Amino acid sequence: MIRTTTAATLLAGVAATVLATAAPAAAAPAAPIPTFNYGTKSGEVLLTAEQIGEITDAPEMSVVGRSDDLIDAKSSISPKECLSAFEPARAESFSDADPKSVTIEQLADGKPGKAPHVVIQAVIGFSDKSELGDHMRATARSWKSCGGQTVTTTSKSGDEVEWQLSDPSTKQDDTILVISQRSGKANCERAIAGYGATFIDVMSCSFEGGRATGQAEDIAAQISANLADQK
């Protein structure tokens, strides 16, 4: 369960509900798929607060929440298909799969909802690499169909904020899939990767005009390297 703060509370600083101004295509087009690396072991592979601080240039980063369950926050999302592209480790985004293990950490350099920087890093274990591959492909198709769309987040108080999604692209020799989102001064980057039977799911956000480009990518790459080191 979440300690210190709930996942839903932290994510409220990023988004509550999502409404797209344009619906996705009825049939998802071909999407870039990250190349899978195949290892055999998992464990404590998430980055430390110090490492996250170095990547995000936010030295005051600390862990503000941890969970061994997927995030099941109550929110109204439209289109629902864009939830995975917008937020990490959401239970609805794994309806096509049966994860065997979940570890999520949330880090921030301030109070949830007010922190200048927020990072969510997660590793989700599957029964085998085949099941992981199926989920990675489904996720990539979802991201592709949502690329370029404008989404609207609505807080519990009814405040709405528009976010512009980029088109997804592969990085790190095609091993990581990333998509960015922007709203005013706020910039976020999402990244996913796979190692062995482990799904790596990351989001990094800067809410005061700082950069986020490359941050989730770097975090995902380091988590993958940590998994490789356990072989």
UniProtKB/TrEMBL annotation:
Residues 43-225 form the PknH-like extracellular domain. InterPro entries: PknH-like_Extracell, PknH-like_Extracell_sf. It comes from the Bacteria. Gene3D superfamilies: PknH-like extracellular domain. Pfam families: PknH_C. Residues 1-27 form the signal peptide. Keywords: Plasmid, Signal. This is Sensor domain-containing protein. The lineage of its organism: Bacteria, Bacillati, Actinomycetota, Actinomycetes, Mycobacteriales. The gene is lppH_3.
